[in-house]
Write a structure and sequence with these properties.
The chain is mostly helical. The protein folds into two domains: about 1-55 and about 245-268, Pectate Lyase C-like; about 55-240, no CATH class. It has seven helices and no strands. The protein has helices at about 55-85, 95-115, 125-145, 155-175, 175-205, 210-240, 260-265. The chain is elongated and about 75 Å long. The chain starts with about 55 loop residues before the first helix and ends with a helix.
Amino acid sequence: MDSSHLNFSNQNLQNRSFKGLNLNGANFSSADIRGCDFSNAQLKDANFTGAKIGQLPRVFVFVLTIACVVAIITFKAVSEMSFGVLGRTPEESAWSYSVALFVSLGIAGLCASFSGITKQNSIFHRLTTIISGAASGALLGFYYGGSSQDNNPQIAVISAVVASLLMAFVCFKFKTGFVRVVVAVTGCITNYGFAFLLSSLAFAFLNIPNILLGSIFICLTLIATVLTMLCLLQAVKEITSVGVTSFKGADLSNAKFDGSTLQRIQRM
């Protein structure tokens, strides 16, 4: 392709897709390429001097708003359910729900943590993302489905199953940054809830006193707390990476960048 026809200098190219195109020798100097997708493009000798790259402010605000809404919804459900099971004993009919909550929080939080530290295109990453999304969906479906019908347990269980399947499908079908944001945010909150329940068990065993079990649950609480912070950092990373200029898989041989711009690309 004749590079003379590839002069994009000083143009507003926000959110354009150049995926897989032959753009060798193209001139993008001083162009606004925030949100553009250059994945697998040929960009040998391309000029990006003075180009604006990264994430548009309105995209950041939009994603941050979604993250905050998801966090509030999840925090309310996890907090109320966690406080609701405190002091429950195996003799009570609601004990099975307490165990289900404990297991669901652990699965959702742990899988979200693993999802955040694994390579995005790996099978393990996809699997942990789907499992975390399904577990979080079950928790939210159970709480909001049940509370909307005067805490009807049958409705709550049905809502949990439907929400779990829906979230699993979304996480499987859509590999977008928005999905990763939701999984990271819900993972942070579910890890918090898991840490809270673990700490309550630790204090309960220490009060018996059972020093061994109490110490074990204290260690598990600390691990869950670390996982909470890990998911929080991952959520921040995902929020700031949605809609950024992507050069994934692109051939940038001899491409010209400003020094600071090149450092940002290397971190993307």
